[in-house]
Amino acid sequence: MEKEKENAGKPLEEKWHFGHNKAAAAAGSRSIRGTLSKVIASVEETGPRPLIQLGHGDPSPFPSFRTTPIAEDAILEAVKSAQYNHYSPSSGLLPARRAVAEYLSKDIPYKLSSDDIFLTAGCAQAIDIVIAALARPDANILLPRPGFPLYDARCTFYNVEMRHFDLIPEQGWELDLDQVEKLTDENTVAIVLINPNNPSGSVLKYQHMEEIAKTARKLGIMVISDEAYGHLTFGSNPFIPMGVFGDVVPILTLGSISKRWVVPGWRLGWIAMTDPKGILSETKVIDSIRSILDITINPVTFIQGAIPQIIEKTKDDFFNNIIHVLRGAAELCYNKIKDIKCITCPHKPEGSMFVMVKLNLSYLVDISDDVDFCIKLAKEDSVIICPGSVLEMKNWLRITFAIEPASLEVGLERLKSFCERHGKN
Amino acid sequence: MEKENGANPSSETERWQFGHNKAVVAAGNRSLREAIYKVIACVEETGPRPVIPIANGDPSVFPSFRTTPIAEEAIVEAVRSAEYNNYSPTNGLLSARQAVADYLSKDLPYKLSPDDVFLTAGCSQAIDIIISALSRPGANVLLPRPGFPMYEARCIYNNVEMRHFDLIPEQGWELDLEQVKKLADENTVAIVVCNPNNPCGSVLKYHHMEEIAKTARKLGVMIISDEVYDHLTFGSNPFIPMGIFGDIVPVVTLGSISKRWVVPGWRLGWIATTDPKGILRKTKVVDSIRSILDITTDPATFIQGALPQIIEKTKDDFFNNITHILRDAAELCYNKIKDIKCITCPHKPEGSMFVMVKLNLSCLVDINDDVDFCSKLAKEESVIVCPGSALEMKNWLRITFAVEQTSLVVGLERLKLFCERHEKN
């Protein structure tokens, strides 16, 4: 056929009508995974000195953080029963939803029903679904800076405008509520809160949370409360679920078993309607969530099947131990950083698995910014740290302390050496 | 900005700036799950006669279809090792991708590398990702009629225009390639082929597949080959992967373990670039897939960990047994339908788990259309069949024969009685 011959000489773009999705590329560039890959790629050593990962929040490979055998047994029982090989219903299996409802209800002044719970494949999918559900032409969402870039990635992906408000380092990383009010307009639909906080390690106080709720109500927006690190607190501020203020403002609480049970690879999370007045139903936000769930993948059915046992039978010992390890690690990290001249920690971490620290570039000789710092650190000392730029905080660093304590010591020691090596005299 | 309304509940919606996302609701309306739930809702009997579900493609609950103990054991081992509780890398564990590459390569004239494989949480997520990756302003995709409505749902969700071409009942449900050529224009990016076919139960012949490949090449479009029912053939046409024609036209092969291993609840599938000329890489479609995977939830890590063992150790006995059961069930179904006056089956099923049959409304007294037929059948006989309208074929029905044989016999008998009861004299 003539056209075939014509096509033969044509450049690819003319011959084939498909190509890439620029919006997807833009969204994908907002990923911690992507940025950390670049940092890891700078590592040159091949051993015997081990790589020290202080970049991502996943302590599951470390012996000190191994999940409870009760969780593993629950999974094995569910698999062996052969009762859970089938497709899941859209919102998730009823016993699993009921178990999550009861779990969350323990810490709020009203009872959640299984209908208030939607199971998701991890908190990452919960974020995907909530942003998609709220997306409308011209809508904007208020996101914290520093934050968790998956929110930015999903907003970019779904064409939702992002407006960033600051968390104030000197004030325990509390929200700048004046700025929140200034940023809001009639197209603002929600504000995202992450508590306990990734990346700063802060835990919000009751009074401040109440102010946030009242502010959101005044502005007519809902709160998306990301509680992936729920209960992982080890300082003076206890964990308070935002749902406590659900009667003040409608709240969607996002969570998962990934962090508290240290099983991020199991992909089991939820969206909970902590909204006793039913406003999210009336405004049909829940309908949007349900529509998306109807056409979206669910968490693995046998993992859902194991959830009641996982939630109900895990002993406090296990939780207390994890917190104990985190407390010790956070202490170690904070103290070591005090010894490093070019790094400042404005607020001792008291929750989650991370701390944000500021780079004082004026103390360093040949480091241009946080990304350069992290790349050189990886290259020279095989330590991986997350550059603050990917979290909207240029010249800051996010350090994970949730690793085997022995490795943490080594990693921080190497960090110190690196800083001394590059320090001005 | 103050927004004060009275405490009147009906004005609650007015004070809030968030609401629903119409586009996702439109996408959700295409959900097959929903269409079938509506039919199930018509069931009135509460027993002792059991409901016979011959609408869904999920035989995992039936003893005859129980998955191989080898697969269950592989999962158990992976969980017990505690080596797979961590986050998965973006494209999936290397060992799992290697296993899938080797598995698919067995039936292709070239070798796939693990870099050609992207693991997804089931084939549904593969569909989600590929449609998303291809979406661009003005793009359109060619979809089969009848089809699998997840494609329609995802096109609506991603704002991709859908153009439907017919599968021709009298010609073994082959594609109407003349129509395909007429529908395609410079904005057409891909054509979706589902083989073995859901919902028709047809299996494409080599010659026809080669024609499809050449047509796609001429039109400058890629083929999305949905092979979720791969190897589930039991008639005269063997299963041929579309990837065989990958040197003619770029083919993206979608698959999973859900059907062949009867474990849809395990959520483990893949996108494979069966594209020996690397066109998908050069046109950056692969980049788009990666960008989306970077910000998207992954299959459970321990299921990925178990995959090499699942794929490599499952015995042919198991596969042969499943195919044997399906063959008998398809035979039974086809023969029974021949006995029913108002239903015609244009093509005996020889693959997948379904058959499409035509309703001859002129033979029936008080049935308006396929939805009405299915609703009344559910109500009067507690048999669930899928209305063809949900698959773009009004006044057709999709019947699953992949159920326990005893149930199938009962269900088809009740179907026959129902038809006789509603037939014209």
Automatic annotation (TrEMBL), chain A:
CDD domains recorded: AAT_like (cd00609)
Domain Aminotransferase class I/classII large: 51-415
Top-rank taxon: Eukaryota
Gene Ontology terms: biological process: L-tyrosine catabolic process
EC number(s) reported in the record: 2.6.1.80
Keywords: Aminotransferase, Pyridoxal phosphate, Transferase
Swiss-Prot/TrEMBL cofactor(s): pyridoxal 5'-phosphate
One Pfam family recorded for the sequence: Aminotran_1_2
Reactions that this protein is recorded to catalyse: nicotianamine + 2-oxoglutarate = 3''-deamino-3''-oxonicotianamine + L-glutamate
Modified residues (N6-(pyridoxal phosphate)lysine): 259
Gene3D superfamilies for the chain: Aspartate Aminotransferase, domain 1 (3.90.1150.10), Type I PLP-dependent aspartate aminotransferase-like (Major domain) (3.40.640.10)
UniProt cross-references to NCBIfam families, sorted A to Z: tyr_nico_aTase
Similarity field: Belongs to the class-I pyridoxal-phosphate-dependent aminotransferase family.
PANTHER family for the chain: NICOTIANAMINE AMINOTRANSFERASE 1, TYROSINE AMINOTRANSFERASE
Identification of the protein by name: nicotianamine aminotransferase
Organism annotation: Rhynchospora pubera
UniProtKB/TrEMBL annotation, chain B:
Matches recorded under CDD domains: AAT_like
Residue list for modification N6-(pyridoxal phosphate)lysine: 259
GO molecular function, one term: pyridoxal phosphate binding
EC number assigned by the record: 2.6.1.80
Reaction catalysed by this enzyme: nicotianamine + 2-oxoglutarate = 3''-deamino-3''-oxonicotianamine + L-glutamate
Pfam families cross-referenced by the UniProt entry: Aminotran_1_2
GO biological process: L-tyrosine catabolic process
Source domain of life: Eukaryota
Matches recorded under NCBIfam families: tyr_nico_aTase
Full protein name: nicotianamine aminotransferase
